[in-house]
């Protein structure tokens, strides 16, 4: 063991773990959109545009989900991360 090896970090970047987490998020997002109606992406964009009229937001901070509990009930869930000021 040399002196330089002592100062080197023995921890390797967790790129595989990070990639796996990102892939899980993408897959979950696509599963949620698979059962959504055809008009859903346009409706989501229009909701974002309405919110932008009042508050400056990042579109990435908006999630819209359509949950179907049974054949008679659908729930539209909207989560917006608003800026501090």
Automatic annotation (TrEMBL):
GO terms for biological process: cell division; regulation of division septum assembly. GO terms for molecular function: identical protein binding. The keyword Cell division applies. Coiled coil: none annotated. InterPro entries: MinE, MinE_sf. The keyword Repeat does not apply. It holds the Pfam family MinE. Keywords: Cell cycle, Cell division. Belongs to the MinE family. Prevents the cell division inhibition by proteins MinC and MinD at internal division sites while permitting inhibition at polar sites. This ensures cell division at the proper site by restricting the formation of a division septum at the midpoint of the long axis of the cell. This is Cell division topological specificity factor. It comes from Shewanella hanedai (Alteromonas hanedai). The lineage of its organism: Bacteria, Pseudomonadati, Pseudomonadota, Gammaproteobacteria, Alteromonadales. The gene is minE.
């Amino acid at each position: 063991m040399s002196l330089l090896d002592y100062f080197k970090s023995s921890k390797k970047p967790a790129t595989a773990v990070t990639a796996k987490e990102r892939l899980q998020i993408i897959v979950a997002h696509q599963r949620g959109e698979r059962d959504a109606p055809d008009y859903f992406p346009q409706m989501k964009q229009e909701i974002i545009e309405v919110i932008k009229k009042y508050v400056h937001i990042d579109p990435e901070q908006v999630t819209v989900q359509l949950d179907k509990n049974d054949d008679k009930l659908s729930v539209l869930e909207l989560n917006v991360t608003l800026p501090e000021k």
